[in-house]
C-alpha cells in the first residue's frame, strides 16, 4: 500500500493529519520542557541524558511535522512555530511548566515531577509507538520503527530514576507520591483522540484509546508491584482536553519562548 | 548526440567520492562506513542519493546533506544532485562496516557491540587499550548516538556508539 497525498480518501487523510498533529505537538512540548532542565538537573549525568532525550524527542516531533508537510498541511517549521495555542493538539501534561520561576532566573523546578512526568509520558509514548508500528498508514509505521529504537533508551533512563527515587528516603518517597498525584490530574487526555476518536480509530491508524490505556497499565504493573505501589488510575474524563485545543496559560508562555527566534525572521535559513 | 559526447556518471564514482564525506561530529568515519548511504542512482548527469538518519534528532543531518551535495557536485559531468533522508529501512548500528569500526576506534570511540544481553545491557572493550575492565558512566553522551564509559585499566574516559537495533 503506497498512499500519496492525491490518492488518499478524504476521511482517511483527515484522520492521519489529526493523529500526526497530536503526536507532533506532544513531542514538541515534551522536548521543550525537557530542554528547560539543561544545566539544572541534579547531576551532570542526568543533565547530559535529559538533553539527549529532549533532542531525540524534538527530532521525533520534527519528523511528524515533516510527514504533515508531505500531506500538504503546511511547512514543517511553520507548523511547529506559528500555530496559536488554540490550534495545538498536545496533551496538557506535556505543556505544564516544570515548576515556579523561569529557567534563566531562580528556577524552582521540581525534579520529582520531571521524573514522574517523563516516565509516565515515555511509557505512554511506548504503547503508542508499539501500536503505530502496525499502522495502516505506512509512512507512520516506518517512522515508528525508528522512534521505537531511540525510545528504548529513554524508557530505561526514566524507569531507573523512577524506581530509585521511590526506593529512596522518606522525603523522596513523599515528593514522588505528590508528583504522581499531580501528573495523574493531567493524564485524562494523554490517550484521548479528542473529537477525532471515531475517525482515527475507524481508520486503523493506531489502537483504540481503551487498548492503549490497558497496555500502559500492563507495562507499569510489574514495575509498581516491586515498589509495592498501585498503578494510579487514569481519569475517566479530562478536565481540559488538549486534543481539542483546550489548553492552559503554560502553553502560551512556552510557545512565546519556543518561537521567539523563529518569529524574528521566519524566512531565515538556519 | 553520439556515444562519445553522452554524459554518464557511474554510481561507482559517486560511491567513491562519498567515502570523503565524514560525519562532522566524528570526522574519522565516512557516511558510507557509518552505513548511512542507502541508495545511489544516476541518470545521465543527474545523481540521487538516499541517506538514512542515524538518530532522528541528530543536528548533523543537515550538514551531512550539504556536504554530500557539495562533494558529488565536484565530480566531472555531474549536472544535478538530490539528497533525500528516508526512515525506511531504519538505520541500525550493525550497518557500520568493519572499516567504520576501525575508524571509530581511531577517534576514541568503541564501535557498537553486536550483541546485547536479555536485560538490554551490553559490553564493549576500551577504545584505547582494548581492556575489558570498563564501567558504564552514562548511557547518554555528547551526541545522541554515543555513551560514556570509563576504563579502569588505562584510566581513560572513552565513548561507545550505542547499539541500535530493531530488536530494541
Overview in brief:
By secondary structure, chain A is mostly helical.
Task: Summarize this structure as a short list of keywords or feature phrases.
heterodimer; A: 270 residues; mainly alpha; Ferritin; two-stranded antiparallel sheet; B: 168 residues; alpha/beta; GMP Synthetase, Chain A, domain 3; three-stranded mixed sheet; 18% helix
Layout: helices, strands, pairs:
The complex is a heterodimer of chains A (270) and B (168).
Chain A: H1 10-35, H2 44-70, H3 76-81, H4 92-95, E1 99-102, E2 105-109, H5 111-132, H6 138-166, H7 170-185, H8 197-202, H9 209-227, H10 249-258, H11 260-264
Antiparallel strand pairs in A: 1-2
Helix pairs in contact in A: 1-2, 2-6, 5-6, 5-7, 5-9
Chain B: H1 11-18, E1 22-23, E2 26-30, E3 37-43, E4 46-51, H2 61-73, E5 80-85, H3 98-106, E6 109-110, E7 134-138, E8 146-151, E9 157-161
Parallel strand pairs in B: 4-5, 6-9
Antiparallel strand pairs in B: 1-2, 3-4, 7-8, 8-9
Please name the CATH topology of chain A: Ferritin
Order of strands in the sheet with most strands of chain B: 6-9-8-7
CATH architecture of chain A: Up-down Bundle
Helix proportion range of chain B? 10-25%
Q: What's the domain count of chain B?
A: 2
Radius of gyration of chain A: 18 Å
DSSP helix count of chain A? 11
> What's the SSE pattern of chain B?
HEEEEHEHEEEE
Number of strands of chain A: 2
Classified by CATH, the class of chain A is Mainly Alpha
